[in-house]
Automatic annotation (TrEMBL):
Limits of the SAC domain: 154-547
A GO CC annotation given for this chain: endomembrane system
Protein's name in the database: FIG4 phosphoinositide 5-phosphatase
Keywords: Hydrolase, Membrane
Any Pfam family hit: Syja_N
Keyword Membrane belongs to the record: yes
InterPro entries noted in UniProt: Fig4-like, SAC_dom
Entry superkingdom: Eukaryota
GO biological process, one term: phosphatidylinositol dephosphorylation
Subcellular location: Endomembrane system
GO molecular function terms attached to this record: phosphatidylinositol-3,5-bisphosphate 5-phosphatase activity
Chief location: membrane
Length: 663
């Protein structure tokens, strides 16, 4: 079967911004600096963004000549015989996007990066520093008194803190999805790929220069999953104007990679967390779900294992496992004006037909397939009803939705009061979580890009034969997902996800022929390394949503934490409380502005004048939405037809031959 080339996301890896009085010229090249592209940005428009891309690929010599002629042409125009007409403004590694408040547009450039991981030879970078440059020149600038305040709010989103990108690997999708695109037959890929053929024109015609023409054609590539892209709104204005090579999509969350040596064989363990840009925000200001089924603090965590002796997608051995955390998908909130550490939980709207939960689970079926397994860790027994409110409503919603689903695809609901078991001296929390983890991984399976190794055929393990997912000629697919939640989706959730990840890691190592049984003990180097990765992952996600690092860690639940940990936990609790009470509102404003949830408009209330952002995130409060879905057939018909396979992995969903699925 003919296969397509690896999906190219962005081939412009090095940029230089040149400045004249009337124009910016953004010159981008590949890493080897053998091919160049040029964007022309007009600086004479006070409020509009005018960008022209001729889509011609230049050589290094052609670009040098071009810049020389630009310099000479602008010098002559301005009568500056002794000085340069073209200034080198800044060097960069990518364009985050373009944004406008009340004056003109800004361009945001990545000026510093750090390599964090390598997957199949594709580098993943962390944004270390950015530069925000105002485009219109001073002679046409129309000043506004509130511009500086909007700029400060926008820059309060620290792009140097846990934003990641890759030039050649789609971070918004899972490894399973990316390698599915890689194996897609060329005929089908051509019918699904995005193409844009446009006649070229001379972008330097009014500069008095002669350039070579050339037509620009988009290459074969997969579309990013916009839910996990954080600069989608910033790139939206240029998406249809410039060549695909300029578009660099960034994700927010976590990325870490560690190296293991197993009997001399190098193995890379990579952990990637993708934070949703929908209904995004801070702990007490974003709870539950919005009217479109997007939930607060939704994070997709993927652990990728690869045999580092062969770093190639086509020849190497790769495995991945994906799980999700997210707020309970109901209309609920907590009022922080009471200044209580645990504000009372309020159900904001009655939803007897579980409409918002239906939208949420329909999204999950589309992206992950079935089964969907909910691990609900909130308290079930309390003296004063608090967390139990959510449990009761969630049970009712799942029960209602399940009665209409085909029996083989019903949502699996696992309630487990983790806090109660933690207090018990008789129960070992992690042992119980391990039992749940085994049952979950057996149902969903995991992804591996190679057939079962000879050693697993020669010495079969009984657990291996019970594994779910789909078996295909080239390996195994994960079908379905574990969705874990507590109230905050921070401490308890991270420990539960670690235990499920540890169980999946054992199967992954076994599938690659690195261990003889799909079991891993706690006191091994592999698990210690994996635990450190998960602690960093949990701390990072907790800081982003809750304002502090994890309060309760894996060691806390193992009851082996040192005595000094207790004082640290108290400090983290105080830090979280301070952040929630005093800085979360400002952080929420910044996120709303950065993600384009709020657009500053002349003559309308400013962001800081709004009493609430509720109507910004709940679109049904501002306009009538299309007709509601059926209360009984609540899913998308095309999605349900392809279960247990995810509809988003279109090629496999439409070619069920040679698939052997079991749940």
């Amino acid at each position: 079967m003919p296969t397509a080339a690896a999906p190219i996301i962005s081939s412009v890896q090095k940029l230089v911004l040149y400045e004249t009085r009337a124009r910016y010229f953004l010159v981008g090249s590949n890493n080897a600096e053998t091919k160049y592209r040029v964007l022309k940005i007009d600086r004479t428009e006070p409020k509009d963004l005018v960008i022209i891309d001729d889509r011609h690929v230049y050589t290094q010599q052609e670009v040098r000549e071009l810049l020389g002629r630009l310099d000479l042409g602008n010098r002559t125009k301005m009568g500056q015989k002794g000085s340069s007409g073209l200034f080198r403004a800044v060097s960069a590694f990518g364009v985050v996007g373009f944004v406008r408040f009340l004056e003109g547009y800004y361009i945001v450039l990545i000026t510093k990066r750090r390599k964090m991981a390598d997957i199949g030879g594709h580098a993943i970078y962390k944004v270390e520093d950015t530069n925000m440059i105002y485009i219109p020149n001073d002679s046409v600038r129309v000043t506004h008194p509130d511009e500086a305040r909007y700029l400060r709010i926008f820059q309060n989103v620290d792009l140097s803190s846990n934003f990641y990108f890759s030039y050649s690997y789609d971070l918004s999708h899972s490894l399973q999805y990316n390698l599915t695109v890689l194996r897609m037959p060329l005929e089908m890929l051509k019918s699904e790929m995005t193409q844009n053929r446009q006649e070229s024109f001379d972008i330097f015609e009014d500069e008095g220069l002669i350039t070579q023409g050339g037509s620009g054609v988009f290459g074969i590539c997969s579309e990013p999953y916009m839910k996990y892209v954080w600069n989608g709104e910033l790139l939206d204005i240029i998406k249809s104007t410039v060549h695909r090579d300029w578009l660099l999509y960034i994700i927010h969350g976590f990325c870490g990679q560690s190296k293991l040596l197993i009997y001399g064989r190098p193995v890379y363990v990579t952990l990637i967390a993708r934070r949703s840009s929908k209904f995004a925000g801070t702990r007490f200001l974003k709870r539950g779900a919005n009217c479109e089924g997007d939930v607060a603090n939704e994070v997709e965590t993927e652990q990728i294992l690869c045999d580092a002796s062969v770093m190639s997608f086509t020849a190497g051995s790769y495995s991945s496992y994906v799980q999700v955390r997210g707020s309970v998908p109901l209309y609920w909130s907590q009022d922080i004006s009471t200044m209580m550490p645990k504000p009372p939980i309020t159900l904001d709207q009655a939803d007897p037909f579980a409409h918002v939960a239906a939208l949420h689970f329909d999204q999950m079926f589309q992206r992950f397939g079935s089964p969907i397994i909910i691990l609900n860790l909130v308290k079930e027994r309390e003296k004063r009803k608090h967390e139990r409110i959510l449990s009761e409503e969630l049970v009712a919603a799942v029960t209602y939705l399940n009665q209409f689903l085909p029996p083989e695809h019903t949502i699996v609901y696992i309630p487990w009061d983790m806090a109660k078991y933690t207090k018990s001296k008789l129960c070992n929390v992690l042992d119980r979580l391990n039992v749940i983890a085994e049952s979950v991984v057996k149902k969903t399976g995991f992804f591996v890009n190679r057939p079962d190794s000879y050693c697993s055929i020669l010495r079969p393990d009984e657990k291996w034969n019970e594994l779910g997912g789909c078996v295909i000629p080239t390996g195994r697919l994960q079908t379905g997902i574990l969705r874990t939640n507590c109230v905050d989706c921070l401490d308890r959730t991270n420990t539960a996800q670690f235990m499920v990840g540890k169980c999946a890691l054992a199967y992954q190592l076994y599938s690659l022929g690195l261990i003889d049984k799909p079991n891993l003990q706690f006191d091994t180097d592999a698990v210690r390394l994996f635990e450190e990765l998960y602690e960093d992952h949990g701390d990072t996600l907790s800081l982003q949503y809750g304002g502090s690092q994890l309060v309760h860690r894996v060691k806390t639940y193992r009851k082996i934490a040192p005595w000094t940990q207790h004082s640290k936990d108290i400090m983290q609790t105080l830090s979280r409380y301070y952040s929630n009470a005093f800085s979360d509102a400002d952080r929420q404003d910044s996120i709303n502005l950065f993600l384009g949830v709020f657009h500053p408009t002349e003559g309308k209330p400013h962001l800081w004048e709004l009493p609430t952002d509720f109507y910004l995130h709940h679109k049904n409060t501002m306009r009538l939405l299309p007709t509601r879905r059926s209360y009984t057939y609540w899913w998308t018909p095309e999605v349900i037809k392809h279960l247990p396979l995810p509809y988003d992995e279109g090629f496999l969903a439409r070619s069920p031959a040679n698939l052997e699925c079991s749940n």
